[in-house]
Amino acid sequence: MPFDPLIVARQHRNIRSQSQQLQAYNTHIPHIVMQNETLDASLSHRLVYKNRADWYASAAINGFCDVDLAQEIGLRRYLTAAQINATNNQKNNGMSLYE
């Protein structure tokens, strides 16, 4: 099944920006990225969400954009599963060259 890289990139950007805008009082899942998780985003996803299936969400939250670059160690505020699903279903109502 083919996928549109622009839609995937937009989703990655939206998840990343939402996780960076989370405040301490917002609903989130706190997780500390340790040394063994720096090169494997699916391991972080398994420790937070209990599966490795949708690891791209953890990759976006951790700022993972290249396989050769390690993620930073430290505390992250992960979105809840409901927040990630809401991000995936958002429609852009503004003007865009690519839509």
Question: Which terms would index this structure?
Answer:
2 strands; two-stranded antiparallel ribbon; mainly alpha; 2 domains; 4 helices; 41% helix; 99 residues; globular
Plain-language structure description:
The chain is mainly alpha-helical. The protein has two domains: 1-31 and 76-93, no CATH class; 34-65, no CATH class. 41% of the residues lie in helices and 10% in strands. It has four helices and two strands; from the N terminus they run αβααβα. It has helices at 5-20, 41-49, 55-62, 81-88, and strands spanning 29-33, 74-78. A two-stranded antiparallel ribbon has the order 1-2. The chain is globular. The relative contact order is 0.21. The model has no long low-confidence stretch (mean pLDDT 84).
Q: Return the structural class.
A: mainly alpha
What's the shape?
A: globular
- Nearest-angstrom radius of gyration? 14 Å
H/I helix tally: 4
> Biggest sheet: strands, sense, closure?
2 strands, antiparallel
Number of domains: 2
Overall pLDDT metric: 84
Helix/strand layout:
Elements: H1 5-20, E1 29-33, H2 41-49, H3 55-62, E2 74-78, H4 81-88
Antiparallel strand pairs: 1-2
